[in-house]
Q: What sequence folds into this?
């Protein structure tokens, strides 16, 4: 165990020394950390049993904080009025991805699975993770409006997909039995209603307290980050106390908190670049150490067909349809459709809900989710830099186009085209 931990520390230190250089190549941090975790498993430096408990702790903490802080960055008024592309991808593209994903699951997965089980699998594969294609959102040659659209979408779609995942999971438990005699329909209702209520209350109260403290100079930037983390975790625990869903509560609290303070907490924007990176790396490493070695052996041809269909067909079609009627060019729609990597949200949601199923579905659904994550990490990681550079060159040759507009100008142009402005 000690040797394994030392190896992780040395590997992480060495990675940070070349991280900037690697960010412009086809090698991504998730790929490397999952591969290193898999190597540790093969070498036997860390026993799987020792890492399993740590994986669940890291998974829950990562999910709570990332849901809260990603949501806190989004100004709802700005999203509604100015960011047409991510708004369409979230409100139309995400439900379409679940619907089309359910149809794809029906084609490839076992015929004895119920429709709601297929929908659960499709919902698990709907959230995206920009970290797996970091060289796209960090490539300054890609227009800011495009990079911002991908970032906003990936920051919000995991929280928006979670209610659907919980609903379908509860329906599976209620219709197929889970060995638990609780009323799963009432359970789903309480999770989906009480979680947001707690999130709104905690987020609003936390935001008002922060504004009061800043106004009276009672706090400073160095302390506000600790307060934001405590608020996220406290919201999760409060929701659990009242039988709401803690993760939905954390997401809604982040949205509420961010729109109360309106950008006046630097930690929210700095976390992803510092502590959030370490947390995400740890989660990917533990996936490679604990889960990937077991699920690779369960990867069948039908399962692979479904995963590839989800990546290459389901999301691209859903995004293309959702952006119809906007000023996004066909090339941009294809670009958005491909760069929807499946990452931590897919893996962590599967880990958190599947133990509740308590029957034979747990193993195959977990295999689908985790195999999707490492396949997506590989495909999107390898394609991110070259395709982002190709897209940037094509856009640069297009002259004046909507993709090059600043967000505010794009908003004004959209209103002019629709006759709202003179």
A:
């Amino acid at each position: 165990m000690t040797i394994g931990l030392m190896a992780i520390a040395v590997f992480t230190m060495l990675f940070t020394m070349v991280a900037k250089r690697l960010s412009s190549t086809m090698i991504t941090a998730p790929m490397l950390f999952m591969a290193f975790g898999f190597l540790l498993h093969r070498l036997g430096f860390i026993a799987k049993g020792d890492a399993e408990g740590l994986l669940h702790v890291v998974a829950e903490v990562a999910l709570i904080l990332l849901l809260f802080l990603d949501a806190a960055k989004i100004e709802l008024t700005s999203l509604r009025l100015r960011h047409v592309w991510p708004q369409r991808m979230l409100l139309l593209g995400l439900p379409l991805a679940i619907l089309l994903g359910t149809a794809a699951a029906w084609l490839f997965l076992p015929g004895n699975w119920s429709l709601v089980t297929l929908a659960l699998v499709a919902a698990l594969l709907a959230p995206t993770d920009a970290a797996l294609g970091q060289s796209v959102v960090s490539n300054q040659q890609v227009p800011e409006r495009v990079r911002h659209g991908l970032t906003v979408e990936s920051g919000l779609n995991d929280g928006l997909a979670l209610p659907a995942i919980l609903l379908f999971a509860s329906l599976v438990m209620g219709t197929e039995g889970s060995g638990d005699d609780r009323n799963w329909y009432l359970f789903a209702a309480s999770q989906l209603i009480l979680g947001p209520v707690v999130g709104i209350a905690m987020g609003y109260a936390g935001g008002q307290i922060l504004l009061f403290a800043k106004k009276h100079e009672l706090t400073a930037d160095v302390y506000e980050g600790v307060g934001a983390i405590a608020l996220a975790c406290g919201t999760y625990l409060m929701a659990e106390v009242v039988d709401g869903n803690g993760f939905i509560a954390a997401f809604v609290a982040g949205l509420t908190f961010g729109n109360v303070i309106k950008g006046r907490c630097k930690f929210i924007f700095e976390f992803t670049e510092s502590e959030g990176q370490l947390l995400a790396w740890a989660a990917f490493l533990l996936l490679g150490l604990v889960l990937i070695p077991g699920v690779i052996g369960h990867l069948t041809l039908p399962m692979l067909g479904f995963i590839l269909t989800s990546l290459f067909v389901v999301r691209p079609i859903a995004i293309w349809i959702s952006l119809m009627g906007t000023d996004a060019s066909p090339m941009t729609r294809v670009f958005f459709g491909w760069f929807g990597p499946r990452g931590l949200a897919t893996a962590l949601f599967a880990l958190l809900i599947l133990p509740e199923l308590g029957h034979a579905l747990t193993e195959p659904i977990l295999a689908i989710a985790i195999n999707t994550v490492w396949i997506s990490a590989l495909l999107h990681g390898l394609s991110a830099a070259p395709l982002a550079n190709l897209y940037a060159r094509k856009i640069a040759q297009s002259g004046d186009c909507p993709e090059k507009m600043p967000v505010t100008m794009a908003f004004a142009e959209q209103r002019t085209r629709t006759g709202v402005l003179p």
The CA atoms of residues 327 and 417 lie 10 Å apart. The two ends are 69 Å apart (CA to CA). Residues 409-422 have pLDDT under 50 and may be disordered. Residues 39-408 form a domain with the Na+/H+ antiporter like fold fold (CATH 1.20.1530.20).
